Amino acid sequence: MKKEDTVMLISAEGFEFVIDRKAAMVSQTIRNMLTGGFLETEHGKVNFPEISTTILEKICQYFHWSLQYASLWMYVMMQGMWGAWYPVALI
Amino acid sequence: MSSGPKKRNFQIEAFKHKVVVDPKYAEKTWKVLEDAIREIYNHNASGLSFEELYRNAYNMVLHKFGERLYSGLVSTMTLHLQSMSKSIEAAQGASFLDELNTKWNDHNKALQMIRDILMYMDRTFIPSTHKTPVHELGLNLWRDNVIHNSNIQSRLLNTILELIQRERTGEVINRGLMRNIIKMLMDLGPSVYQEDFEKSFLQVSADFYRAESQEYIECCDCADYLKKAERRLNEEIDRVSHYLDTKTETKITNVVEKEMIANHKLRLIHMENSGLVKMLLDDKFEDLARMYNLFHRVSIGLSTIRDVMTSHIRDTGKQLVTDPEKSKNPVEFVETLLEKRDKYDKIISSAFSNDKTFQNALSSSFEYFINLNPRSPEYISLFVDDKLRKGLKGVKDDDVELILDKVMILFRYLQEKDVFEKYYKQHLAKRLLSGKTVSDDAERSLIVKLKTECGYQFTSKLEGMFTDMKTSQDTMQGFYAACGAELGNGPTLVVQVLTTGSWPTQSTNTCNLPVELSTLCEKFRSYYLGTHTGRRLTWQTNMGTADLRATFGEVHKYELNVSTYQMCVLMLFNNTEHLSYKEIEQATEIPSSDLKRCLQSLACVKGKNVLRKEPMSKDIGEDDVFSVNDSFTSKLRKVKIGTVVAQKESEPEKQETRQRVEEDRKPQIEAAIVRIMKSRRVLDHNNIIAEVTKQLQSRFLANPGEIKKRIESLIERDFLERDNEDRRLYRYLA
Fold it and tell me: Minimal Cα distance from A35: which residue of B?
């Protein structure tokens, strides 16, 4: 993985989580941090002095889960009047 | 939770956040943020940690210091905007807009960053307290501190208007900068855009165009002025597309249209030597199209053009139609009408984009003036006659159709279609009998068109005439098949048998045919009556032609094509050298007026004088003596003498025809009255007149006085009666 594709999230205890940039962007706040023109943008590192490691770990897992299922189309199929399947909504 | 022998000893407590002990917590945190905002405005954001600032803002809101945060934001932003404002004010001349633009961009960037770090407050504190969101707040503060700053507000407006004015006079300005500034005003809200710019812009533009239009109209002619107006209009549309709000387009085009076009409408149209009438006369398609497009935009612009055009066509048409010079030659007369129609058709289709209302105006004008000349129906029939005799020789089928269609268009304009019918019948009869029609297909095609236009009734007799011609051909074949052997070397007879009802009535005259012919004719008569009993045949000697083989002076042989009368006269000279007028009259028994004309064409026409007359005067006297002209020569072997050509009628003939038409109308009016009364039973006077006129519209314009007379006549004959109480009501008597 290239350096540019990843960001580093650092927990209160100093644990460094290196994850996909795309995954991190799931959070609007982190997205703003990384594209805002602040300190974080330059280095691609975000410090979270008030978030513990275990919590941050869970957050990163959530990012990846969200990304995985967001990249799959999910059509909610509804059986129509004559037995055909009609796509109703896209998740 | 199940209660078992072993008790679980733990409890789940609510999550408690760190308690704030420091009383100056809010101020400290705010200070951090305030400093950060300053750095952001100074383009030093890259040294700040987003996370830290976000966390601080978040904590403030969480610990119920949202109010402090918000008010702090307002005051610090205001401060920065005020200093920006000062630096904008200080800018000189041209750099004013530049400075404004730069500061605006700076403010926007800063605002975005500030909004990002204060996102939590924006999402929670602000909605619950119904305060203005950060972004909107930033725009409002900008508006209040910069745009509406007393030193900047009017200066900004004036600068923009001045630039636009310069562009209007031809200078090139920085459109990108203008676009940004205008966009800034748009972003601040529609009321700002309108109040701080658009209103004044429209006002100033109106003044500008008012003055300019005044100047132009004094010195330009119509076409030039319209070009300039069009150019200005396009300029404004261009300006809007490049740097103004699209909603301004209709407003500014309205201004231009009003000032440059609507205000000067009439003056432009009636401009001497260059206005609408001149353009129409000179077929200035491009200028007319431009005028149409521009006037289309203003209310009643087009109707003004249409009205002027209509009155012009009516006037020129009236002149044309009542000009005695033009009326002398009917074919020319109709051709000028067709030309005129073509001209305006072309103008309407190429310059007025085939506007239907203009087509209608054209039709109504033509209808108006064509009917001003009572001889129009006759002339149109003569025109068609000329075309079908020789005018269409060598013309392709499609072109023939085109010409006939155009004639039909003129026919539709006629009010007195029955007059046309009468003349057409006469001319058609002459054409058919003299065999002079150029194309049978063309004749039939025109009949079909007339049938489509006026119904079967109109053309049934005309078609009857064609049928008679065909039947006669078959009869002749039968005659020669049956009696051919007996006739041997005698003269060849060709007979057209005409059904009396279909053909125009002619009075039969006396005429003594030469012996050779009379026996032949009798043979034919007995043959015909043999096959068609119960019919009566009458010879129409005034409508026939004959081909004679003549030898002059023993040497020159010619074939002469003459009328029946002329043939009778010439055959007399087979037996004698000289004959006086009286002798000829006695021998042939032809009526004197016809005989005189016949002799004139034989003896007095240069190049066709097969007879010599003593004395050599133009007129025929009772005592004139005629002899064969032995020294007659001609370049052609076949010589045609005095064909019966359809002439424009002389005065007495015209009166006669008109009288006959009037007579024919009487029964038609009566039939219409009876039809109407039969279905309505009771009707009052005015309504009868209206209904009858409507019914007869397709044939002629009924005269109310004449209708009244017909009603009286019907009352006398007990078809109708007057109501006893109301003298205006009529009742139908079964």
Answer: B113
Residue that the structure tokens 């004015």 belong to: B165
Compute the average pLDDT of residues B95-105.
Answer: 94
* Per-residue confidence (pLDDT) for residue B587, from 0 to 100: 86
Q: Which two tokens stand for residue B361?
A: 């105006």
ipTM exceeding 0.90, yes/no: no
Cross-chain CB nearest to A40 (options B51, B112, B113): B51
Q: How far is A36 from chain B (nearest CA, A)?
A: 6
How far is the C-alpha of B154 from the C-alpha of B498, rounded, in Å? 97
Q: Count contacts between A and B (CB, < 8 Å).
A: 44
pTM as predicted? 0.76
Residue B267: C-alpha distances to residues B34, B244, B286, B296, B565 (Å): 68, 33, 20, 17, 68
Q: Write the residue in B45, B48, B54 that is nearest to A29 by C-beta.
A: B54
Q: Which residues of A, range 7-66, sit inside 8 Å of B by Cβ?
A: 28-29, 32-33, 36-42, 46-50
Residue B627, phi then psi, degrees to nearest 5: -145, 165
Q: Could A32 and B48 be called an inter-chain contact, meaning their C-beta atoms sit closer than 8 Å?
A: no
**Calpha distance B262→B275 (Å, rounded):** 15
Tokens of B700: 């002629």
Name every residue whose Cβ is closer than 8 Å to that of residue B539 and which is 6 or more positions away in sequence: B508, B511, B513, B521
Cα separations in angstroms, B587 against B294, B461, B573, B591, B642: 80, 37, 11, 11, 21
Contact across the interface for B113 and A37, Cβ inside 8 Å: yes
pLDDT of residue A16: 93
Looking at the partner chain, which of A36, A40, A42 has a beta carbon nearest the beta carbon of B113? A36
Helix, strand, coil fractions of chain B, as percent rounded to 5? 65, 5, 25
Residue B282 binned pLDDT confidence (cut-offs 50, 70, 90): very high
Nearest residue of A to residue B43 by CA position? A37
Question: Both tokens of residue B279?
Answer: 């353009």
Q: B551 by DSSP, 3-state: which?
A: strand
Contact B331, B382 (CB under 8 A): yes
pLDDT of residue B551: 85
Hey, is the C-beta of B651 within 8 angstroms of any chain A C-beta?
no
